[in-house]
């Protein structure tokens, strides 16, 4: 789910079409306009905290991008966040897994405010890639090592359990208070 709260009941999703994927087949081949489906959730802790002056840092991998896009869209629309810096770190295995720049460009408010860093982790694609390489928690670690103070940030991170676990360990080791860590784990 990737939308802002709204009065008209519209829900938006980011869906990756994966050949042979169970959800892909159900959604794109067997579901039509007007069909209904049952959804559940979200239940995680990665929702925007509106009472903070800290820098907003979003970190994601895989389907974790959806809630982060919702958080970012909310941040850029709130006057109380007009002075905050906003960072997005997003990782995928290959360049074809990265759609985040297109999503940011589709919303002029996001494209103008969010500093985005993408990375790939599949070494077989490193030669064709000009961006960051490695797992996204490693990229965030390098960002911290380059002089950014993580204790002045609120972190929102979503993705698969190994990624969220690695990010959480990194940030706790960097002395970020637990109250500034907000995450969801997706399988």
Short description:
The chain has about 190 residues and is α/β, with parallel strands linked by helices. It has helices spanning about 20-30, 65-75, 100-105, 110-115, 135-145, 160-175; strands at about 55-60, 85-90, 115-120, 130-135, 155-160, 180-185.
Description:
- This protein is α/β, with parallel strands linked by helices.
- The protein has one domain (44-185): Nucleotide-binding domain of ferredoxin-NADP reductase (FNR) module (Rossmann fold).
- The protein has helices at residues 22-29, 65-77, 100-105, 108-113, 136-145, 161-173, and strands at residues 55-61, 86-92, 114-120, 132-133, 153-159, 181-185.
- It has a six-stranded parallel β-sheet with strand order 4-3-2-1-5-6, sandwiched between helices.
- The longest helix has 13 residues, at 65-77.
- It is globular, with a radius of gyration of 17 Å.
- The chain starts with 21 loop residues before the first helix and ends with a strand.
- The model has no long low-confidence stretch (mean pLDDT 88).
For the largest beta sheet, what order do the strands appear in spatially? 4-3-2-1-5-6
Determine the CATH topology.
Answer: Rossmann fold
CATH class: Alpha Beta
Which shape, going by the Cα principal axes? globular
What's the assembly state of these chains? single chain
CATH superfamily (homologous) name: Nucleotide-binding domain of ferredoxin-NADP reductase (FNR) module
- The assigned structural class equals alpha/beta
- How many helices? The count is 6
Query: What order do the SSEs take from the amino end to the carboxyl end, as H and E?
Result: HEHEHHEEHEHE
Q: Which runs of at least 5 residues are low in confidence (pLDDT < 50)?
A: none
């Amino acid at each position: 789910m990737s939308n802002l709260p709204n009065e008209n009941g519209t829900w938006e999703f980011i869906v990756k079409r994966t050949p042979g994927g169970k959800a892909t087949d159900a959604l794109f081949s067997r579901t039509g306009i007007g069909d209904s489906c049952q959804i559940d959730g979200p239940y995680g802790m990665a929702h925007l905290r509106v009472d903070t002056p800290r820098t907003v840092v979003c970190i994601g991998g895989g389907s974790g991008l959806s809630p982060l896009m919702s958080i970012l869209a909310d941040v850029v629309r709130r006057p109380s966040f007009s002075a905050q810096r906003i960072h997005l770190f997003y990782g995928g295995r290959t360049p074809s897994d990265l759609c985040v720049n297109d999503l940011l460009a589709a919303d002029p408010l996001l494209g103008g405010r969010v500093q985005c860093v993408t990375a790939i982790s599949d070494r077989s694609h490193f030669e064709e890639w000009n961006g960051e390489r490695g797992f996204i928690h490693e990229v965030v670690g390098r960002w911290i090592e380059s002089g950014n103070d993580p204790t002045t940030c609120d972190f929102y991170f979503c993705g698969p359990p190994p990624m969220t676990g690695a990010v959480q360990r990194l940030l706790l080791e960097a002395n970020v208070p637990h109250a500034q860590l907000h995450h969801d784990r997706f399988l």
